[in-house]
Amino acid sequence: MKHVLESVESLFETFQILNEDGELVNKDDMPDLSDDELKELMRRMVYTRILDQRSIALNRQGRLGFYAPTAGQEASQLGSQFALEKDDFLLPGYRDVPQLIWQGLPLYQAFLFSKGHFHGNQMPEDLQALSPQIIIGAQYVQTAGVALGMKKCGAKTVAITYTGDGGTSQGDFYEGINFAGAFKAPAIFVVQNNGFAISVPRELQTNAKTLAQKAVAAGIEGIQVDGMDVLAVYAATKHARERAIAGEGPTLIETLTYRYGPHTMSGDDPTRYRSEELDNEWAKKDPLVRFRKFLEGKKLWSEDEENKVIEEAKEDIKKAIKEAEKYPKQKVTDLIGNMFEVLPSNLQEQMEEYKEKESK
Amino acid sequence: MAQMTMIQAITDAMRTELKKDENVLVFGEDVGKNGGVFRATEGLQDEFGEDRVFDTPLAESGIGGLTIGLATQGFRPVPEIQFFGFVYEVIDSISGQMARMRYRSGGRWNMPVTVRAPFGGGVHTPELHADSLEGLMAQQPGLKVVIPSTPYEAKGLLISAIRDNDPVIFLEHMKLYRSFREEVPEEEYTVEIGKADVKREGKDVTLVSYGAMVHSCLKAAEELEKDGISAEVIDLRTVSPIDTDTILESVKKTNRAIVVQEAQKQAGVAANVVSEIQERAILHLEAPVLRVTAPDTVYAFSDAEEVWLPNHKDIIEKVNAVMNF
């Protein structure tokens, strides 16, 4: 009898383009990006890091609500989003607000999402995306449907979705990748493996050595990527996108990353389950530090340039939070109005009741 | 006796049963090392070891199936669903499987399971964290649904639930976790499942409620007293089955009743209570039995919770309506 597990697992190596010192270690797979595009990638990562810092501060001041910190995951989030086209469809998890923003969600709406206002979920007409999913993994099955729809319409677009390492334990994860594979649908499934599902370490989620190898059972391509290397994440996603468009089916991309902060700002304390040594180990792999070194080596980036981005981000954030705070408060009648195309009689009656209450 | 919050009383109940019965197992997402996202299982893994108190992979349906399997092997599982809004992920295991196991196996198998979960609004959570879904559970024959409103009762009811040989859904209102402390005995005791409690005696109107709304009823009753209206407050404590005896005894005395729930109006626990009252005591009523509930929308986005959730003023308004009927 032949045992295959070990040999299958050994096939999944971590794909990397830049090492921790920002040196190009994989010339063959270096993506074809212009200098301006490389700078734009850096700009977005710096901007998003500032957005995260400011969001945490605003949350502590009580000016934002639910917030899941993103620092550490910029390369995974933005490298993959950078490989998308405008009409691609995004199905994010709750930590994936940066991808929505760079795909076209106005910042003040991202803040309204955090504050718990439905307008934060009202995606602009030209943004093909669902609002961040709260139920872990639910977006994975839906992605198969979005992608199959695109295929049926003959669209040259893809559906991309995100979950975390914990999300790969959900039944929805397996159903999603299997359905997309069965229909050869143009889907990209990203797993941002940041090592912990709230407190539970990746090792307790599964006996599998990599999460990428879960693709094998679904009969789709899988790849494990250094999720702190923005060029590797970009290249892997770009390649997955090209394959999807060419009718070659979905890809599962596992990015190895880390969230520096807590799970969310709602009382999680990472010191209960993560060591300082581990934090320090991952800080050395920081996606911004690494890419900055690479760009500085090419004379494409400077401190001045970085400071300009930081100031721009702070200015944008200041404006956006004001706009979010000015936005009209939700009324019960707004919520009732959003329930059905045509209100049934019970809600018509309640609409009148609440109109009267609200007019007092 | 110690002063405990509701969450401390819940932890104490699990500790008591883990100590008493080696077949009790506590598990779920983040319940081990992290002690639960609300710290309901704080210290239990250290005290009882990873065999008895453990983290599972992240999958509510997995937790449900695991629970059923463990129960067939002589264990008494106490799984946690991290937030009850996630119950949709595990509703087949709970309603489709556990609830029917004794029935479909002709008594060969039973499910001595207690599914614990936080629920309830007013604490600014994201979507699907705060929904009151007890009505969904109460509709399922084969389940008992328990909702404590005080630390003392939380401990006694949870111990009863764990010792029960049939599945109990034990719902813990997040707003009550740390809202107040009271005397809770350190030793073991039980509070009977299926028995309501008169939280305040009165003679003019009966307020029937459960969970956090019990406290809104008590607040309303205090204010009503100033206007010379004496309200009796009944805490159901178990929403399936309903303790109709306690309700009827009260209604026959006050001749008026209001049923208060945090959940939406349509097809819920309150509707069931109203039916029981009118079926059994219509000739004792001086006014229709009214409901105070949330409107029939999906649970409010967190920034609109205050205007969406029912409160003591809504209760007073309805009481005045039945008093002046």
UniProtKB/TrEMBL annotation, chain B:
SMART domains: Transket_pyr. Residues 4-179 form the Transketolase-like pyrimidine-binding domain. The keyword Metal-binding does not apply. The lineage of its organism: Bacteria, Bacillati, Bacillota, Bacilli, Bacillales. InterPro entries: THDP-binding (IPR029061), Transketo_C/PFOR_II (IPR009014), Transketolase-like_Pyr-bd (IPR005475), Transketolase_C (IPR033248). This is 2-oxoisovalerate dehydrogenase. Its cofactor is thiamine diphosphate. Keywords: Oxidoreductase, Thiamine pyrophosphate. Pfam families: Transket_pyr, Transketolase_C. It comes from the Bacteria.
